[in-house]
Write a structure and sequence with these properties.
- InterPro entries: Cu-oxidase-like_N, Cu-oxidase_2nd, Cu-oxidase_C, Cu-oxidase_fam, Cu_oxidase_CS, Cu_oxidase_Cu_BS, Cupredoxin.
- Belongs to the multicopper oxidase family.
- It holds the Pfam family Cu-oxidase_2.
- About 10% of the residues lie in helices and about 30% in strands.
- The chain is mostly beta strands.
- Strand 39 and strand 40 form a beta hairpin.
- The longest helix is centred in the first third of the chain and has 18 residues.
Length: about 750
């Protein structure tokens, strides 16, 4: 009889998996199943990426007829009409829910006119499949318009993950979805703590805009537009942030509902697709949250009133449905840059048998912030009785190996801040330098160690032999970066098998902010975290470390792949570099990584890497040599200052001044690659790859004196420009070339 009851329970849970879906109109995928130890499956998905629109004609009379909001291809969002980029006309995209060991195959078709894309599988380490990591110009070429790309990898690390575009601001505009890798119940260390782990209990939260992300970006970076989100959504639904009694019938959009049965315990999985600096505090009225995992890493259960989730993070928590049959608010409270516009959101926890109505309480920005014990507070470290940092939670079980607790093989101090530098992307030092502009027009550039990451023209993972000589760089190959803007393909070399320690330091001088950092291809142990003061220096942290004032948890530190760093403080993480490849490490706020707040770890050498897949796409610059006899003159107007060797102003225009052959001093300067705007950089690093060898830093941009030369002659004047400089020209600049035969 007991055996019959056990079988009946398994059958019931299986049926719940089959009928539960993330969309009211989409059937469950065959791979969405109970993970019972059966054979692994091949799980195939087709993603069609295209421009789309919220509250489109597919929505008919939504929100006045609530059933219309659930129609096929209807994306209600928060009710504000705006353009989006969607996968299969869904927001979020299709939920991928598989079992550990399944093979995931996703065919991505790019329908975007004139815009490329890629998909990153956030949390999947891609062991043995680095070419599937989905980072454009690092692990693959961007998927060009009208083209397709097949991602093919094993779901090898269980947990709550997600996928998203890694191209521009597509993630902010809707290209994201959940990716859950479940374990066999016997392997799950927390299986005894809950009764159900349902596909429908995945929460994907995100800050949200009333316009395309690129419009917000250019307004903020080139004018005085703000960088603050206007709303928030959960599983693609929400309302503009106003109390319910102030909403019109057009504003009263449907909210996400999560159904439970009284007396049962449920595992929920929350994912943050946040793209601006808006950490979100989540709580459930009259219920506690028992947090059991973060970023796929199991932790010792901890009961809290609320948790804060940063961009890129994931948390698993258990809700015990032990209250009266009713509906309860799930409250989402926006922090940091969500404060100016008082952004909040809500969803509903509804007990089976409760009326399909909303809870009575009227929500406001103030009352969505729950008091009591909170996990992962913003800019508070170390914690106290009511604030528990992620560095203070404990891994469920100590690591199988103690290798990560020994003395590190490589130790990197990675400090950052918003630097008052003349980034040529946003400030012309001659016409509108940063301190020549009005205060609300000054763009402070977020940089790691005063270097901005510039993507190479070709992915080094698959086309390292095609990279221009001198593409990769690090601190030893650049100079004067605190005074001049430095951007290059910032790469740190790590021998395969090394134990790496990263000391992440938020100097906290310019703004009171918080930055969540995400690592690709691995996870790390969070061994220490502290907010030292309102601002701090690298030397202070080094001195604290030398004196033994930094306490590291080298026994049971939690394992994560995304972690926030307190402003004016540090977070220390450690990882074993056992996965060869090129792996991105970056701030997960879109406005920051898109201006270069990141770097690349090169783990191992190319002979350690898995073989490049057959017929793998290639891309790069095309700069063939120019036959001097074909042209009498090439005049290039309005080059960005960073590639201009000599500028001379005339009454009618600014143009590149070719050196006069009769002027021996100027001519020699051009021949050697030096000028008034060039700083000599000493060689300190050599590698089998394209790290900078004898080189120059021209206004912060790496160039090489031995690079191929483009020649042009006109009378007795001649000039030479490195082809690498042309390769580094920013997208969007237009050059007018006049050719005279």
């Amino acid at each position: 009889m007991a055996r019959f009851g056990s079988c009946a329970l398994i059958l019931l849970v299986t049926l719940l998996f089959i009928v539960s879906t993330s969309s009211a109109t989409e059937p469950a995928h065959a791979c969405q199943r109970v993970c019972d130890g059966g054979p692994a499956r091949r799980c195939v998905y087709d993603f069609h990426v295209e421009y789309y629109f919220t509250m489109s004609k597919a929505c008919f009379d939504c929100p006045h007829k609530r059933e219309d909001c659930d129609r096929h291809h209807c994306i209600p969002a928060d009710g504000i009409e705006r353009g989006v980029i969607a996968i299969n006309r869904q927001l979020p995209g299709p939920s991928i829910q598989v079992c550990e060991g399944d093979r995931i195959i996703v065919n991505v078709k790019n329908h975007l006119p004139g815009e490329s894309c890629t998909i990153h599988w956030h949390g999947i380490h891609q062991v043995g499949s680095p070419y599937m990591d989905g980072v454009p110009l690092v692990t693959q070429c961007p998927i060009s318009p009208a083209s397709s790309f097949r991602y093919n990898f094993i779901a090898e690390n269980p947990g709550t993950h997600f996928y998203h575009s890694h191209s521009g601001f597509q993630r902010a505009d809707g290209v994201f979805g959940s990716l859950v890798v479940r374990q066999n119940k016997e392997k799950d260390p927390h299986s005894s703590l809950y009764d159900y782990d349902l596909p429908e209990h995945v929460m994907l939260v995100s800050d949200w805009l009333g316009e395309l992300g690129v419009a917000k970006f250019v307004a903020h970076h080139h004018d005085d537009g703000d960088n603050k989100p206007s709303s928030m959504i959960i599983n693609g639904k929400g309302r503009i942030p106003k109390p319910r009694n102030e909403l019109t019938s057009n504003d009263t959009m449907p909210l996400s509902v999560f159904n439970v049965e009284q007396g049962r315990r449920y595992r929920f999985r929350i994912i943050s697709n946040g793209f601006l600096n808006c950490p979100i505090q989540l709580s459930v009225d009259d219920h506690m949250l028992t947090v059991i995992a973060s970023d796929g890493g199991a932790i010792q259960p901890i009961e809290v009133d609320s948790l804060v989730i940063h961009a890129g993070e994931r948390y698993d928590f258990i809700v015990n449905a032990d209250q009266q049959i009713s509906s309860y608010w799930i409250r989402l409270h926006g922090l940091m840059d969500c404060r100016p516009k008082r952004v909040f959101q809500a969803a509903i926890l509804r007990y089976h048998g409760a009326p399909e109505t909303e809870p009575d309480a009227i929500l406001t920005y103030e009352n969505t912030k729950r008091p009591g014990k909170v996990l992962n507070p913003v800019n508070i470290a170390p914690g106290d009785d009511e604030h528990i940092t992620v560095a203070e939670v404990k891994a469920m079980s100590p690591s199988k190996t103690n290798d990560w607790s020994r003395e590190p093989d490589r130790k990197f101090f990675l400090s950052y801040d918003f630097n008052p530098i003349n980034s040529w992307h946003f400030h012309d030092p001659e016409h509108y330098p940063i301190f020549g502009a009005e205060k609300n027009h000054r763009l402070y550039t977020p940089q790691i160690n005063h270097i901005s990451l510039r993507m190479p023209p070709s992915p080094p993972l698959s086309q390292h032999g095609d990279l221009p000589f001198g593409t990769l760089c690090n601190e030893s190959t650049v100079a004067n970066c605190q005074q001049e803007f430095c951007d290059c393909t910032y790469t740190l070399q790590i021998p395969l098998g090394s134990l790496v320690e990263l000391i992440l330091i938020d100097k906290g001088v310019t703004f009171d902010a918080t930055h969540p950092f995400h690592i690709h291809g691995s996870a790390f142990h969070v061994v220490a975290m502290e907010r030292v003061a309102s601002n701090v220096t690298v030397d202070q942290i080094k001195l604290m470390d030398q004196k033994g004032h930094i306490r590291r948890n080298l026994v049971d530190a939690p394992v994560k792949d995304t972690v926030a760093v307190p402003d004016g403080g540090y977070t220390i993480v450690r990882f074993m570099a056992t996965n060869p490849g090129y792996w991105l490490f970056h701030c997960h706020l879109s406005f920051h990584i898109e201006v270069g707040m990141g770097l690349i770890f090169k783990v191992g050498e190319h002979h350690d890497f898995p073989q490049v897949p057959e017929n793998f796409p290639k891309c790069g610059s095309w700069l063939p040599p120019v036959d001097e006899e074909e042209f009498e003159s090439i005049v290039i107007h309005n080059l960005p200052y960073n590639v201009t060797d000599k500028i001379e102003k005339s009454e009618d225009r600014t143009s590149l001044r070719p050196p006069n052959s009769g002027d021996s001093d100027e001519s020699s300067a051009f021949s050697s690659g030096e000028s008034e705007l060039t700083t000599e950089v000493p060689f300190t690093l050599s590698d089998e790859d394209n790290f900078v060898i004898p080189q120059h830093l021209t206004n912060g941009t790496l160039s090489h004196s031995e690079s191929p030369i483009i020649h042009a002659t006109s009378g007795t004047n001649n000039f030479q420009i490195s082809s690498i400089s042309f390769a580094l020209l920013p997208f969007g600049y237009i050059y007018t070339v006049f050719v005279r035969r």
